[in-house]
Amino acid sequence: MKIALPTRENLIDGHFGHCEYYTVFTIDEQSKEILSQEIIASPAGCGCKSNIATTLKEMGVELLLAGNMGEGAVNVLKKSGIEVVRGCAGNVKEVALSWLAGSVMDSGEMCHAHEAGHECQH
Prior knowledge:
The protein has a domain at 2-60 and 71-81. It is 21% helix and 28% strand. It has helices at 52-59, 71-79, 92-100, and strands spanning 2-8, 11-12, 21-28, 33-41, 61-65, 83-85.
């Protein structure tokens, strides 16, 4: 299984659409181990209007562990068959290991506020 995490400086980025890059871990669900790690460049633009959902799906990503994100991005990912867990924070490897241990749950919170000049309507 592959999981993706929106990342900035090895930490979960607080907003999915603004991340520096995506960390993609290939994991073994039975042994609860990370088998490999890849870095994927973040496309320009808002997360819900970029092609990142398609890119991640084509890589085999089934789950995205995120900080916060708008409803549009959540919907695009879910339509691509990628489960979304929001409310994550901290070092990406530690978050992935915590999820494997069963201690990470979706916060259910959506981002509704954006910086000045943000054009995307979530």
